[in-house]
């Protein structure tokens, strides 16, 4: 086919349709929501999801029902930026932890995170004031590098963790963690401070020194890990070597990792639909019936079309394409529409040739 023979309007429409469909597929399988497991931007958790899937089976939970289905002793659950759960949700999470599961709760807002921590049985609370460090930081004091790391299996191989506008953790029922069952895993450097008045500099009286940013406490047969900044597990911050190491230590030895999105609409529509079908037996049955029905229709399409023609009073054997007639004006209009670049004289000759070709066999009879 010569280059000039292409029908450029049709090609353009085809390219547009392909582009639109690719865009729709992308929109259905990705998400721009913060902490979303299919969000590849800096504030997404795509790296968290893919890193976990390298060593464990990953579940994206849209309800807390999934907690009761896991083998708790081999599982890690991660909740980023939570809010207060319902009593039923809290009971399911508590049961998971008490059976031996490890729950990681990362949040920086006390109004949202503290009710969740309290509901699931944790005695740790979030301070909420921005933690800053003028000496040990990444790109600025608002991204402090917490480098006081305790010797613990959950911090094996960890030398530091970088926070992004994070805060500090504090006990709810004791003057300090030294008088509780809570073990600080990672503390800020000795020169970090909580910027209570928000003036971006240290002032006398503001909390100062090595402040906890990650803790662990026993609960039943399991453990609750609190982290003072959910951003520590975002794509951008997991580029930091220390944050990667902390995630690796949390994942070590886990067979199942549950990423809890029961409180967030962070999943792409297609992923959400697939999870909904997978966890809903009646819906699985409906989808199966529809799929088998569609397959049966495709396999028997010939007989179905023949039956439809019969029902409409049409006999395919009696149909002759030569019965369709086009007058000269119709043929010429069609040619002008398909080939607007042809001059009128050439278009007339082609029109006459088409008419003669269609009328020829009939004249021979």
From TrEMBL:
InterPro entries, alphabetized: DUF4350
Pfam families: DUF4350
Span of domain DUF4350: 37-251
Superkingdom, taxonomy of origin: Archaea
Entry protein name: DUF4350 domain-containing protein
Native source species: Halosimplex rubrum
């Amino acid at each position: 086919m010569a280059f000039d023979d292409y029908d450029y309007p049709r090609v353009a429409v085809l390219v547009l349709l392909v582009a639109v469909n690719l865009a729709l597929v992308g929109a259905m399988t990705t998400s721009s929501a913060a902490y979303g497991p299919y969000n590849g931007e800096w504030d997404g958790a795509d790296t968290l999801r893919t890193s976990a899937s390298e060593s464990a089976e990953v579940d994206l939970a849209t309800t807390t029902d999934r907690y009761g289905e896991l083998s708790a002793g081999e599982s890690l659950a991660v909740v980023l930026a939570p809010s207060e759960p319902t009593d039923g949700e809290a009971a399911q999470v508590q049961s998971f932890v008490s059976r031996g599961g490890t729950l990681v709760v990362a949040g920086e807002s006390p109004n949202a995170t503290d009710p969740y921590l309290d509901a699931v049985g944790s005695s740790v609370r979030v301070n909420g004031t921005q933690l800053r460090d003028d000496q040990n930081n990444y790109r600025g004091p608002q991204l402090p590098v917490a480098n006081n790391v305790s010797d613990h299996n959950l911090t094996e191989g960890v030398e530091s963790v970088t926070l992004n506008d994070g805060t500090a953790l504090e006990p709810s029922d004791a003057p300090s963690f030294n008088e509780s069952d809570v073990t600080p895993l990672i503390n800020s450097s000795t020169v970090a401070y909580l910027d209570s008045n928000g003036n971006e500099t240290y002032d006398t009286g503001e909390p100062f020194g090595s402040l906890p940013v990650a803790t662990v406490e026993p609960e039943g047969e399991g453990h609750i890990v609190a982290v003072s900044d959910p951003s520590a597990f975002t794509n951008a911050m997991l580029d930091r070597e220390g944050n990667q190491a902390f995630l690796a230590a949390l994942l070590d030895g886990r067979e199942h990792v549950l990423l809890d999105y029961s409180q967030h609409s962070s999943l792409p529509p297609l992923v959400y639909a697939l999870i909904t079908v997978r966890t809903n037996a009646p819906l699985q049955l409906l989808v199966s019936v529809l799929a088998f029905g569609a397959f049966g229709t495709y396999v028997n399409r010939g007989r179905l079309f023949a039956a439809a023609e019969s029902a409409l009073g049409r006999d395919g054997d009696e149909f002759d394409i030569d019965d369709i007639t086009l007058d000269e004006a119709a043929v010429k209009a069609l040619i002008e529409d398909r080939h607007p670049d042809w001059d009128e004289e050439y278009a007339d000759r082609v029109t006459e040739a088409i008419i003669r070709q269609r009328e020829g066999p009939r004249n021979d009879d």
